[in-house]
């Protein structure tokens, strides 16, 4: 089934994608503004059910790559978002049937729609992460062992880098990250096209619809002047990890990533306790009074306690009143191979996955 994404769905999509970003993926606000402008100019984007893909259809996977903090300083341009897709299509000498977000989290959750609005391609209701992760090999397709094929990177200067082949997904990430760092730590990417069969078998399906659903839950709670954080937790089977006030933030941009730690002093029922959050673009682990209470791949989110607005790692500042929640990870990432790819040890920690909740 194919349907047009309506203009009034763009704001819920941005809200939901920002929450699913787990602190990363980049603030979707500017991408949302770009989409509004494209829609007001007459563009429309169709949302395609992944089950409607033919097995041999080619699907372009678009994403932004780099440090979210740098992305705030370089305004996204729809033509730059679409440029690597068009370059890859020209390189392969085969047309794409549709476009898909590499990750639904953050600004990347809207990039497929921007590319679709520019090129006329429908956006597949799926992605490869079900959230945001910092590295390109942390995908459902890599976990499935699918080959990592050509990737194109492009920047605002018009530079294009084509990485035709790499030994595996990790090597493709390393090469892409080095090129991105030279471009100024932010670039547009179109990754190895996946076939319709691969998307249906290994993609995280209906993630765009999920982001819209989450955004509507938060928006409705705000309109009713209810607790948006509590409404989201109830709707998505999440848990509240901590409510506190930001006391300290340490962050740095290195090798195309935003890395750092945030410390929160407890409020309300958490008064007297401290929470520490580590991030590499996205939140990777949380400690309450020195004890690990949540880790990747569970989706750790920071939200403004009053508005329910997601707060990205690049936007944390002293004095913010924050609710830290956890949402369930896609089940694929909880398998042994999934945890080896996106669990704590994949980020350099010396402990295993600690589920924040069960059921």
Query: How many strand segments?
Result: 17
Walk across the major sheet and give the strand order. Answer: 15-14-13-12-11-17-16
Terminal residue distance: 31 Å
Alpha-beta content class = alpha+beta
Form type = globular
Main sheet characteristics? 7 strands, antiparallel
- What is the radius of gyration? 19 Å
- Summed over residues and divided by their number, the pLDDT gives a mean of 91
Quaternary structure: single chain
Properties at a glance:
359 residues; 5-stranded mixed beta sheet; 31% helix; alpha+beta; 7-stranded antiparallel beta sheet
If you had to describe this structure to a student in words, what would you say it looks like?
This protein is α+β, with helices and mostly antiparallel strands and 359 residues long. Helices cover 31% and strands 28% of the residues. The protein has helices spanning 10-20, 29-40, 68-71, 78-92, 108-119, 140-143, 169-182, 196-202, 207-223, 228-236, 336-342, and strands at 2-4, 46-48, 58-66, 98-101, 123-124, 126-127, 151-154, 160-163, 186-195, 204-205, 239-254, 257-266, 274-280, 282-288, 291-295, 299-304, 321-327. A hairpin with a 1-residue loop joins strand 13 and strand 14 (282-288). It is globular and about 60 Å long. The protein starts with a strand and ends in a 17-residue tail after the last helix. The mean pLDDT is 91.
């Amino acid at each position: 089934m194919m349907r047009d994404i309506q203009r009034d769905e763009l704001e819920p999509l941005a809200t939901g994608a920002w929450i699913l970003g787990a602190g990363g993926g980049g603030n979707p606000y500017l991408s949302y503004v770009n989409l509004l402008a494209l829609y007001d100019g007459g563009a429309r984007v169709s949302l395609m059910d992944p089950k409607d893909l033919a097995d041999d259809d080619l699907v372009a996977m678009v994403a932004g790559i780099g440090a979210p903090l740098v992305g705030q300083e370089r305004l996204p341009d729809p033509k730059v978002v679409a440029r690597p897709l068009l370059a890859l299509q020209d390189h392969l000498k085969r047309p794409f049937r549709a476009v898909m977000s590499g990750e639904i989290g953050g600004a990347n959750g809207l990039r497929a729609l921007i590319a679709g609005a520019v090129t006329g391609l429908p956006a597949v209701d799926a992605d490869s992460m079900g959230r945001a992760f910092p590295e390109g090999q942390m995908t459902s397709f890599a976990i499935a062992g699918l080959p990592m094929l050509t990737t194109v990177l492009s920047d605002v200067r018009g530079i294009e880098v084509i990485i035709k082949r790499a030994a595996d997904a990790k090597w493709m990430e390393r090469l892409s990250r080095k090129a991105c760092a030279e471009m100024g730590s932010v670039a547009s990417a179109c990754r190895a096209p996946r076939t319709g069969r691969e998307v249906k078998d290994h993609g995280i399906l209906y993630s765009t619809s999920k982001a819209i659903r989450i955004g509507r839950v938060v928006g409705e709670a705000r309109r009713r002047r209810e607790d948006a954080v509590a409404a989201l937790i109830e709707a998505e089977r999440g848990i509240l990890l901590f409510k506190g006030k930001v006391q300290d933030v340490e962050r740095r941009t290195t090798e195309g990533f935003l890395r750092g730690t945030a410390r929160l002093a407890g409020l309300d029922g958490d008064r007297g306790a401290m929470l520490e959050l580590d991030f590499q673009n996205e939140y990777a682990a949380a400690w309450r009074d020195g004890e690990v209470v949540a880790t990747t791949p569970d989706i750790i989110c920071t939200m403004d306690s009053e508005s329910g607005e997601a707060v990205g790692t690049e936007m944390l500042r002293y004095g913010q009143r924050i609710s830290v929640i956890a949402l369930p990870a896609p089940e694929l990432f909880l398998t042994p191979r999934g945890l080896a790819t996106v669990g704590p040890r994949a980020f350099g920690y010396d402990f295993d996955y600690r589920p924040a909740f069960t059921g």
